[in-house]
Amino acid sequence: MRKILLVNASRYFIDNGTSLLDRKDFQVFMAPSVMQALQIHRRERVNLVVTDLHLPEIGGDILCSQIRQEPDVREVSTILICNDSPDDREKAIRCGANIVMKKPFTPRTLMEHVERLLAICVRRGYRVLLRARVKGATDNGVFFCTSQNLSVSGILIETDRELKLGDIISCSFYLPSAAHIVADGELARVATQPDGKVQYGIRFINLSDQHRQEIEAFVSDSIVSAAAAAVEKPGVTFGPGTL
Question: How many CB atoms are closer than 10 A to CB 1?
Fold first, then answer.
């Protein structure tokens, strides 16, 4: 589960009265100040920090700079939210944030950046953070999950949402290269694991040539990474997964 720390920034995720982070897929921590944010991050080792530049006492740019100076917690993605003014832009450039968002912007735009940065955290094992929707479902609800495997033929996921064979799933996810993959797929396999979790195999049905090439490059890079890890740990085997 991905961990997100919001530093005086929860209001930016409200869309028509609904929080875009109100789901099981993310563990969300909130802090009103830099000192509390640092305490939470040092304890929880979050994957993403979203902070407003303008905070009580110390600014969000100081938070980003402080995180980058601490070896134990510096490997985290950061989003800094600021006004579109020369002074704010200068502070944002200096602090080392991964993404600087200038107000105004929509909650959906912010959420897209969150998904992309969290996807970069999921590098090994053909895993990506996936946003999906069952086409034709009456609730039209979007659900999030982390894939268990990925190839050009399809994707294997675990989710608490109940799905059934034949469902057409609209999939959207980012690869670590920042490539945005959008494709439909048919739910072709359902398997319950010994621990009770349910895995669903989705077969892509309209993957474009460009997206196919980007997935192939991601899988190839994952195999290389797994091979390097196996050198460090004798006895570890690896190979492309199958749907």
Answer: 8
pLDDT digits (tens, 9 = 90+) for 54-105: 988 889 999 999 998 888 888 888 999 999 898 888 888 788 788 889 999 8
The Cα angle at residue 194 between residues 219 and 238, in degrees rounded to 5? 25
**Total number of residues shown for the chain:** 243
Would you tell me which CATH number, out of the four given (3.30.930.10, 3.20.20.70, 3.40.630.180, 3.40.50.2300), belongs to the domain 2-121? 3.40.50.2300
> CA-to-CA distance for 172 and 143, rounded, in angstroms?
11
On whether the 129-232 domain is CATH 1.10.510.10, my answer is: no
The count of other CB atoms within 10 Å of the CB of residue 117 is 24
The pTM for the full model equals 0.56
Sequence spans of domains, the chain: 2-121, 129-232
**Closest listed residue to residue 226, CA positions, set 214, 239, 216, 213:** 239
CA distance 123 to 126: 7
What CA–CA distance (Å, rounded) separates 31 from 67?
Answer: 15
